[in-house]
Amino acid sequence: MKKRYTLYILVSIGITISAIAKAQSIYYTDQVKSTNNSKSTDHFFVNSAGMIIGSVEYESVVHSSSARISALKKDTTIQLLAGELSSKMTVSQKATITNLQLIGNIDARDFKTMRDSMPVLSEIDINNLTVSAYTGTQGTAGSQNISYPAGSIPQSAFSLGNNTTNYRLASIILPTSITSVGDSAFYNCTSLTGNLSIPGFVSSIGNNAFESCGKLNGTLILPNSVTSIGMSAFYQCQSLTGLTLSDSLISIGAGAFDGDWSLIGNLIIPNSVTSIGNYAFYYCSFTSVTIPNSVTFIGAGAFGKCKWLTGNVIIPNSITSLSDNIFASCARLTSITLPNSVTTIGNYAFTMSGLTSITLSNSVVSIGDWAFSMSKLTGGLRIPNSLASIGHGTFSLTGITEFIAENENPNFSAVDGVLLNKSKTSIIAYIPHTNGTYTIPNYVTSIGNYAFDYCNGLTGITIPNSVVSIGVGAFNYCSGLTSVTVNSTTPIVLSDSIIVFGNTLNCTLYVPAGSKTLYETANGWKILKNIVEMISTVSSTEVAYDKQLILYPNPASEGFYFQVGAAEWSSVSIYSSVGIQLLVSQVKGKSYIDIANLPVGQYIVKISTPNGTIQKKLLKK
After folding, report:
1. Which of 88, 397, 500, 590 gets the highest tally of CB atoms within 10 A of its CB?
2. Which stretch of DSSP H or E encloses residue 562?
3. What is the number of domains present in the chain?
4. Which band of pLDDT confidence, cut at 50, 70 and 90, is reported for residue 505?
5. Cβ pair 213, 205 in contact under 8 A
6. What's the domain range around 574?
7. Is 324 a domain residue?
8. Of 140, 156, 182, which residue is a domain's last?
């Protein structure tokens, strides 16, 4: 009875076979049936020294791991010399082989053969071979003279280049002997399926090595030999569900796991890691992350859009700067612990995050543009003594109810919860979460960029003559703003490229009498289509009477009370926003005016007394 053994070398085409067998002469004849029912006869002779002499030629045979040959030892090998793969196959064989197993030595030329000359090759087992060095123009990375190191899957080994997708390669077993995977080795191999096993001697995984291998699944376990992961190494490997990093890992490249949105669970960064690149874990689904003190750099967007990241994240005291977008769009991240080592918070660092509170230590010097915009911050925010710079729109569309500046801060102050510079001449940020109208104090000379951005509860704003400068987007997206009153007869100069009132175009602009034409033609102001001249300007005499005026409530819903000075006769007139007189009444002393029949909107109340005339803006709600 003959024994049957598996022949593990599937590329057995016109190659002399040598193997160790029993020290006896055996003559062997076998017939192999091909997929097209043809047969080939192969002859082997095992001499007295135990060497198999002969050749194997499989014509039109689709080889698989189930191919069997009688009377041969299981550890039979075919010795393939580096660079010879192409020459050992016919054109027909290259065109039809789908499964391939190699033993021996190969180099970048053989990888090129598998990639470019075998159009239906889908399963590769190169577990038991050695990758040799090669220098020349026939490798995988193009026609230039390139040196390919030994022990490395060469760069672009199975990448077709030019953003072309390799749909063919479905599985590969990597050599146990390799020490690195080259750049773009499996880039865009979108059919590569199953759990990826990285051999235990690999120390580096190159840039884009497995980028867009979207069908690799399960938990990726990186052996402790791995010290570096290249840029975008596993970018958009969307089916990976778990990640275990090497205990020897030092650096994680930019975008290394970007877009791997199926990665879940707890991400533990090993104590060996010193650097996490830009967008390294962007758009992953981890629920928690542990960052050790060994990490000295976390790049921009490193954990951005990790929407399932919950609870608190502790930043180690080895970090001095929080990069741009570092936790942007982490909607479930409710708190962050910042050490005293952090001095800067980058642009958009926590924008659209779930942060409900933040404690800024006395080490924080600067906060970038939009750093906390559209987050869930609520309550008051303390501005520490150390803070010297706050970017544009930093707190836009948050729930902050007041700013509290430390008395010893040399750069900022707060008045009625509004954040200003130290000298109180410039508004830095209005209270995001507040309703009603606001009259800018007459000691303010400038309104900063995006100072009132997204203040949706603001319904009216009065800008005094003292203001000479208004920044970009100062009143952008103030969707509740119905009126802007400007007391300057000459429009503040705005660049035509500056959008000050973006998305607030439906509000009415009230300007001093005689200045409407100027505002209608002025850059930045003419965008407001409803411009109304106030009935008259206020003289210095009238200002004295104005201080005696009591008018409340304002806004009013049913009516309002008013009184000017002593109990004397007054004429009260109410005008629409376009100057149409709607009501006139003669009253004496403190009086009540009924406006229940007037529609909701803004009106001008003109009060005439024997001593002068006063006008006030009234909001009907």
Report:
1. 500
2. strand 559-564
3. 2
4. low
5. no
6. 540-620
7. no
8. 140
Query: What does the DSSP 8-state code read for residue 117?
Result: S
Residues above pLDDT 70, as percent of the chain = 82
Q: What is the pLDDT of residues 514-558, one digit of tens each?
A: 899 999 999 889 888 889 988 654 444 444 445 567 778 888 889
Q: Assign residue 545 the CATH number of its domain.
A: 2.60.40.3080
Q: Which two tokens stand for residue 340?
A: 């005293």
136-140, 181-185, 466-470, 525-529: the lowest-pLDDT one: 525-529
Question: What pLDDT, on the 0 to 100 scale, is given for residue 193?
Answer: 96
User: For residue 128, is it within any domain?
Assistant: yes
Identity (one letter) of the amino acid at 265?
Answer: G
In a domain, 109, yes or no: yes
Q: Retrieve residue 390's tokens.
A: 């706050």
- Any idea which residue has 């650097």 for tokens? 275
Q: Is the peptide bond before 432 cis (omega within 30 degrees of 0)?
A: no
pLDDT in tens, 363-379: 999 999 999 999 999 99
CA separation for the pair 301, 262 (Å, rounded): 18
Strands (E), 378-479: 378-383, 389-390, 399-405, 412-415, 418-421, 426-429, 436-439, 446-447, 458-463, 469-470
Out of 100, 117, 140, pick the residue that ends a domain: 140
Residue 605 lies in a domain: yes
